[in-house]
Amino acid sequence: MANGDVVPGQHGDVSVSSAATTALPIGTVVTNGGRVSATRFPGQAPTTPPFTREELIGLDDALKAASEKALIRFSVFIGDLGSDAVADARAVLLRAPEPAHGTLIAVSPNTHDVVVVSGTKVADRVNDRVAQLGVTAAVTSFRQGDLIDGLIAALRVMSTAAAVS
C-alpha cells in the first residue's frame, strides 16, 4: 500500500534528513515530496486504522494538496489524546519533521476531541479562526461517522484560509 502511512506527523511535503530515514522500518520510504510511504508484506496484519485503501489515498492526496497550497506541512493524528488533548497534540506535532512549519489536526475518536495545533513559523496563518473553520468543516462528517471525509474537508478549508497570497 503505497498511499502514505497514517502515523502522526508523517504527512505533508516534508524535508526529512538522511539520518532520519535510516530509522525507518523495512518497507518504508520517504518519497521525493517528503512524505513517508509504507507497505505491508503478504500475510502481515494491517497496522493502520480500519479505513479502505481509497479513503487512505484520498486523505494522502488531501494532505499533499493542502500542504502545497498553503505552504504548511499538514499532518493528521487519529488516536487517543489522553486527559490533556492540547498538550498531547503538541507532543505529536513535535515528532513531525520540521514541526515549526507544520499544523496537526488531531482527532481522538473515543473522547470526541478535535485539536488543531500549529508550529511557531505558521501560527500566524493557522490561527484560532482558521482552526475553528477546519473543525467546523469536519464536524458534520464526524457526526455521520465519516472520519476521513471530515479530515479532508478540514484540510481543504484550512489550507484555503491559510494560503499565501
From TrEMBL:
The record's listing under InterPro entries reads: DUF5130
State the superkingdom. Answer: Bacteria
Note the Pfam families from the entry. Answer: DUF5130
Q: Which Gene3D superfamilies match?
A: 3.10.310.50
What is this protein's record name? DUF5130 domain-containing protein
User: Taxonomy-wise, where does this protein's organism fall, top ranks first?
Assistant: Bacteria, Bacillati, Actinomycetota, Actinomycetes, Mycobacteriales
